[in-house]
Every structure is written in structure tokens, then in C-alpha cells.
Amino acid sequence: MKYDVNCIFCKIVNGDIPCAKLYEDDDVMAFLDVNPVTYGHALVISKDHYANFLSTPKDVMNKVMNVAQRIGQVQIEQLGAKGINILTNCKEAAGQEVQHFHVHVIPRYTSSDGFKLELKQLKDVNLPAIAKEIKEKL
Ligand code: 5GP
Ligand code: ZN
After folding, report:
1. Beta bridge partners of residue 24, listed in sequence order
2. Domain region containing 75
3. How many distinct structural domains can be found in the chain?
């Protein structure tokens, strides 16, 4: 088990901090966000400690995403959500507060229900040049 003594989600996995648990297996745990942005806002995490999406092994990430998909389906079937947003913040610049890989599954009810993702357009972009820069390293 990869465990970080300073990590709040490791403490939840360990049972040291309570949570409203939705699901648990050998590798994955899901529970409600303690500060939900909408009704039923869930977090799906790896039980092992990985800092974020970028450093999580692919097999673990796949297991987390499978659970996230099912929770999203149930949020729609059971809670009456009209849609969901899947979000994983990586690193401080992206707003990551808990440095343990987690995926937010946010049920959506209306466009003004508490969650807002603002996408501002970047001006004067050279798409082929950017694509080349990224593609070269893939
Ligand atoms: P981040 O910004 O890192 O993607 O979001 C971390 C999320 O974890 C936040 O939405 C926050 O409300 C949630 N969170 C932080 N501490 C706890 C906790 O002790 N229990 C639960 N259930 N959620 C937490
Ligand atoms: Zn952790």
C-alpha cells in the first residue's frame, strides 16, 4: 500500500477520517465530497497514494475511471441529474488542493446549479505549430 502520512485521502482510505462512502474494492474508493458543488458530488480515488492523474499507473487509472462512469450513470438514473462533469485537477496551477489522485464526478441539474467551467478563448493561436510541438513528444 502506498501511503502518505500527511495525506487526508490516505487517512480516509485507512478509516482514520470518516466519509460518506459510495464504493470500495481492492484498488478504488468513492465517497461524497465533503463540500459538494452540486447534490451528489462524488470523488473517486485510487487507494494507493499517487500525487495526481499524471503519475497514476494506467491500470489503476482505468479502474478509477470505470467506477467514475458507473457513479455518473447512477447520478443520472437515481438522483435525476441531467448530465455530469468529470474533472481531475493536476497540480496547484490547475487548482488541485488534495495531492492524492482523485476524479470529481459532478452531477448537473441546470446550467446555474453551482458548477461553472469558464472557457475563455485564447487569441492569435497557431494551431499547426502547437500541434507539432506536442506531437513530436508523444
Ligand atoms: P481538488 O481541488 O484537489 O481537486 O479537490 C479536492 C476536493 O476534496 C475538494 O472538493 C474538497 O471539498 C474535497 N475534500 C477535502 N477534504 C475532504 C475530506 O476530508 N473529506 C471529503 N469527503 N472530501 C474532502
Ligand atoms: Zn494519499
Report:
1. 29
2. 8-135
3. 1
